[in-house]
């Protein structure tokens, strides 16, 4: 027999199991998704691949923050639903004279228990989910040494912080709920609708304009300040992205409370008005969904963009094999190379060996000042640059060129490499003899494999400036084609080269000996030698880092194509992971919102049926509401991210390269795939909502 | 027992302020059964909610058993609601997760003294209102009339100074309405309960000792029952017609 308030609360809990379950599911799922994301973010493997301060890390972090905010909004929404459903009960207890202190104590201890239990379970499930996705990835797609499952304990801190946020929001919501002095308001809370006011038609246009303005301001502000004021705006300036969210909100509002057309003012009136009366929460949810779906698109787009670029570049290589080595290294000779090819049944043809020299080039050095400002200082020896002679170029390409004395050409291509090699070189220096040569830019030469790296000098100039250079500053560039290429040969040659290269060449592409000399002279330390710099290791020759960043990484078409997935494994996994988490969070939020609409609208649908509305009519009213919740955010989110990608591609060099166009083409295909997933979610939810409302279109009856 | 003096209450809707109660003065004596009637928007429910301390009011005084309610803090008000007031709502406001008996015992449970005495009183009230056979049933499984009788029994559990009833028959059919009103009369006669009821139903009001007619937030007239119920009902209907300007 019930004797005290503890018994009363126990019985009420038992009666309202469904309400509790909904809140527990909200917190469980959110914590699980955030923990899984955090686990991935803090995995040492991922942190190593996405270096601190790098663009990729920032982008992943940005998506993580968006996902976390989305999940938090979802939990807050779950909390508000919970309190709403509790309101009648709490109001009755208040009306019967239960002191607020007693209710507060009971309610907050219940919420704490719910949050902690579901949060702890969600955290464990999140760890499990991260492990499962990681392992599935290793089993099904790629398993390399780099893909070891090592987690950092700090990942759990993210889950803990998130859990504290959930707890805090539950407490604040509870305090606000109980703070009200008007008991009738508490009692009637569950019946209260959240209508949004009519908005003028210009809201839609203004929303689109604000989204566009936010994207331009947010993405373009740093370039504006850097180029015009030589000043790096601090992170707070990212607030300029804010108009995107304001614009999205206005756009959603316009879509949700849009009036009927003048021609058919009563068409869809039920769905429109029902959405309007639950407008505030619906619009908030749709906004979160848009952001999450855009995040999912961001993650998934990375893969085709990166993949297409690499595959297309590789396919357009002029040679099957090209590699370079420092002349002080004991790399296998031409005879050894032919022997190795014979062993693998591969025939080498069009073999060429061309000398390369490493010199210092002049230019404007970027110097950071205080207050995020910077200026340029001219340096005669700015950085390392690789030079070949015009005859060397002719030998490789078979193309006749003429570079005048005192001039140079740059090797470019039609893709991204064309802008990363400077044309503003005026002086080159032999770093060992100090001999200098004034030069000026003459022309661009096109060669895919050598693009973005080599300068071409007149033969006489090449001989003169290279005089006195030791083998440490000289390289040999080997190029050849093969008949019946085989991965076994490519892999064996790659291993031979790595095995015969000394530790003095075990550094990434950005490691610059000229900068090192200057930095050590001026400050005693070169950044590339510090712990912060990404290191590569011969022992991890199959890792993404090594394959992407080793300074002397050979370009073997067969190796590149065969090991493509392995080389990019970590990137693939990170971005696929982001896409999965964001997509899962979005689907859950949309599903929950739709079920809530169904539960809240049941009475209206019953009344409509009593008024004679047939199953088809009711189905239409359901379809319009559920459709808006799923399809509007996905349409806007995917389109937004697609446009953002186009903007990024264009902003790189002011044009679209062939590879970029192909990449965005593939992304379009991916958008259709994502739309298919959203549509499947929408169909499933629609089915569930129709079940809840008892609308059966097939039998043409209403239960 | 209950004394209301110069009670004012207004609502703010957007920028508009609506004055709902404009200086109400009334008094209810112990054992009296008083009804408040009036057209929609006359302020009946607001008056009841103010007396119940469910909603705050701006000006005036409400005294219950000589105690000024305006001066009380949240905890003291909760005590008043629990021990000195009993409530009966139009939509019953029973806790769906508790049985009929448990709902009736709720005021005692909140007070923290169910005891044998509480159990015995619950038995007596169940019997008095003819709901013993459903004591272990849940609100969802019983009729509207039974729910409202449960609510009346709950309101009497702590022997309050006054029972406040807001349209108690509003959701009931005539048979159930009569049963609920009879339960009020029974409570008045056997337990000397004081009842203050808001209603729009002249039939229910005709059982009362006194009916206060409210119009535009002010007391329009007070009618005292002198003769038979049916005559009083006719008198009420005439006054309501006159109040609404139909004659």
- What is the count of distinct domains of chain B? 1
**Can you tell me the residue ranges of chain B where pLDDT is under 50 for at least 5 consecutive residues?**
none
Largest sheet of chain B: 6 strands, mixed
Low-confidence stretches of chain A: 699-703
Global structural class of chain A: alpha+beta
Description:
The complex is a heterodimer of chains A (703) and B (247). Chain A is of the alpha+beta class and 703 residues long. Among the domains of chain A are: 12-192, no CATH class; 318-563, no CATH class. Chain A is built from 22 helices and twelve strands. In chain A, a hairpin with a 5-residue loop joins strand 2 and strand 3. Chain A starts with a helix and ends with a strand. The mean pLDDT of chain B is 90. The longest helix of chain B is centred in the C-terminal third of the chain and has 18 residues, at 174-191. In chain B, helix 3 packs antiparallel against helix 4 (115-128), helix 3 packs parallel to helix 5 (144-156) and helix 5 (144-156) packs parallel to helix 6 (174-191). Chain B has helices at 44-51, 74-83, 100-111, 115-128, 144-156, 174-191, 202-205, 229-243; strands at residues 2-13, 16-28, 33-37, 59-64, 67-68, 85-88, 162-166, 195-198, 210-215, 218-224. In chain B, the strands form two sheets. A six-stranded mixed β-sheet of chain B has the order 6-7-8-3-9-10, sandwiched between helices. In chain B, strands 2-1-4-5 form a four-stranded antiparallel β-sheet, with helices on one face. Chain B has a single domain (2-243), classed as Rossmann fold (3-Layer(aba) Sandwich). Chain B starts with a strand and ends with a helix. Chain B is built from eight helices and ten strands. The interface between A and B is medium-sized, with 31 and 33 residues.
